[in-house]
Structure formats: C-alpha cells, structure tokens
Amino acid sequence: EVQVVESGGGLIQPGGSLRISCAASGFTVSDNHMSWVRQAPGKGLECVSVIYNSGRPYYVDSVKGRFTISRDNSKNTVYLQMNSLRAEDTAVYYCARVRGADYHYAMDVWGQGTTVTVSS
Amino acid sequence: DIQMTQSPSSLSASVGDRVTITCRASQSIRNYLNWYQQKPGKAPKLLISGAANLQSGVPSRFSGSGSGTDFTLTISTLQPDDFATYHCQQSYSIPFFGPGTKVDIK
Fold it and tell me: Could you report the per-residue pLDDT of A44-95, keeping only the tens digit for each?
C-alpha cells in the first residue's frame, strides 16, 4: 500500500527546535518530490517546503533560514527540521507526495498529519 | 508569487443541489490546477488534477474545468458525503493553495 506516516510533533516552547518525520511505504521518496504542508487552526493550507527528486529544496519565505528539509534514502523517510520556532508555526503538518509533470505536480498521497504547538 | 482566490468562501446547499466553486489565479497557470476535498480533522484528498482529470475512485459527479486564470469545480448532484471544505492549488510554479470553500448543509 502506498502511504506516508508522519511523527514527531508535540508541544515546544518559542525559540525551540523540533524534527518531524515522514516515513513512506509503497514507493521510493528519492524518486519523487515530497512536500510538507501545514494548516494552522481554522486556517487554509500552506506548502512550507518541498524536496525535489533532484534533492533541491524549496522553502516558503516565512520559514527560510529556520526550517530544513532532508531525506534519508536508506530509511525512505523525509524530515523537516524546525528551529527558532514561533507561535505562528503552530499547525498540523502534513507530508504529501508530489507527482511529476504528467500529473500536473498534484499532491496525491497524504499522511494523517502531526501537530506542532509552539507555546510557553 | 502566483496568488489564488476562491469564491465563495462558504456556501450552504441541500442534498441533490448542483454546486459550483470558482478558483482564480493572479496570472496564467495554464491547466496546472488541482482540487482537494478536506473533511474536519482529516488530511486533504486529491479529487482533480490538471484542472479536469478526475482521480481514480472519485465519483463522477465531481468535475473540473478551466484554463489560464479561471477554473471551476462542479458537483452535479450534492451527496451527504460531499459536505466538506474544497481547496484549489496551483502547481504551475511554487505550490500555492487557495483559501478554501466550505460547503455545509442548508
């Protein structure tokens, strides 16, 4: 079965760090583009980071310099290292596979999400 | 950055109604437009890619159309399972989602 499972969320104080993980099964992460999409309480969806199959990363401006996306091919897992966390980073973080050009780069496989709460 | 707007932001409808949601891009995105359905507490689900390509397993009452800057998602006959929030997303450049349209029961 093709799926992704996120883990690692939790309650963290402002200024703290957290690493969340996305373990994939049924496909190879390094052959695909992988994204992290977050949803703050009561808000819409925001793509915060993508790691392309080439390894090139993308970050939304609000997290540049604070978040780092990476992947471990041996574990078929994608990570999001989040540093200098702010209250506005509080959200459910979803991992999603991004299909290629033939599929118009749609996000077709989503995890259940992991909740990150930044609060003192 | 290419910005996305959706209208309406919410709507109330009855089972059996025909529902149309509009998504507009700030510049041409050709047909790089995807639609997702999201229910409370759940992850989004891909319904339509490339503006009009229905995903496998998605009921045929859902359809998408448009190109360039203006797109629509239509639910031909609203069913109880369709009450949800619908998000459009442009994939022409950096992925960017519209603000969402909540469809609730009238």
Answer: 999 999 999 999 999 999 999 999 999 999 999 999 999 999 999 999 999 9
* A64 contacts on B by Cβ (under 8 Å): none
- Judged by a CB distance cut-off of 8 A, whether residue A22 touches chain B is no
Dump pLDDT digits (tens) for B3-50: 999 999 999 999 999 999 999 999 999 999 999 999 999 999 999 999
Q: Give the whole-angstrom CA distance, residue B72 versus residue B79.
A: 18
pLDDT in tens, B41-51: 999 999 999 99
- Rounded to whole angstroms, how far apart are CA atoms A94 and A73? 19
Q: Cα dist. B63→A26, A93, B14, B36 in Å? A: 29, 28, 18, 12
Owner of token pair 């401006």: A61
Cα separation, B95 vs A60, whole angstroms: 10
Put simply, whether B36 touches A (Cβ < 8 Å) is yes
Taking the CA of residue A43 as centre, how many other CA atoms within 13 Å lie in the half-sphere pointing to its CB?
15
Handedness of CA A107, A111, A117, A118 (dihedral sign): negative
Distances in whole angstroms, Cα of residue A47 to Cα of each of A99, A115, B20, B79, B100? 15, 15, 25, 30, 14
Q: Name the residue facing B32 among A104, A111, A112 (closest C-beta).
A: A104
C-beta of residue B38 within 8 angstroms of C-beta of residue B31: no
